Amino acid sequence: MVTNDYIAMNGNAFSKIEEKFIQKLHKHDVKENQCSSSLVKHVKAPVWSLVRRFDQPQKYKPFVSKCVLQGDLQIGSVREVNVKSGLPATTSKERLEYLDDDEHILSMKIVGGDHRLKNYSSIVTVHPEVIDGRPGTLVIESFVVDVPEGNTKDETCYFVEALIKCKLKSLADVSELLAVQDQTEPIERM
């Protein structure tokens, strides 16, 4: 069961814990002609094993058809992603900026490709939580990107937020299906 609780920073309130994580871990240097936002998704399953796989985004990103990683999976690695038709892009070249398996943080930057997302970077943090007595996850994704010529900040943020919401819903669907198949046991309350 997927929860539909995306929250964007633009005008919506975060819980105190979400706000704390965003202030601590989601820092972007936003310039004048850029937009930035943060989105939150509660998932009824663990997700880090999927999120951390910078080399295999197609496992949960529905708009990725193929990914080729140049070299080993490490900070500085570059992946070339083919985008499925229907989006205003065909390829994206992305660099892994930060990966922390202890704190569950992944940051990436788009460094090329056939699309309009210039100077795009994102941070994804994954925080364990209990949902309905079972292991769950608070996922927070934030981004900053240039506003393309001919678009407004609101239009740009709306477009990127829609892509992230689609990705987070798919992450939830895939993770929750995997959790059901593994028969994840409820967490005992103390």
TrEMBL record:
One Gene Ontology term, aspect cellular component: nucleus
Main localization, broad class: cytoplasm
A biological process from GO: abscisic acid-activated signaling pathway
Subcellular compartments: Cytoplasm; Nucleus
Entry-linked Pfam families: Polyketide_cyc2
GO molecular function annotation: abscisic acid binding; protein phosphatase inhibitor activity; signaling receptor activity
Transmembrane segments: none
Keyword terms: Abscisic acid signaling pathway, Cytoplasm, Nucleus, Protein phosphatase inhibitor, Receptor
InterPro entries for this protein: Plant_def-hormone_signal, Polyketide_cyclase/dehydratase, START-like_dom_sf
Family of the protein in this entry: Belongs to the PYR/PYL/RCAR abscisic acid intracellular receptor family.
Protein name as annotated: Abscisic acid receptor PYL10
Gene source species: Hibiscus syriacus
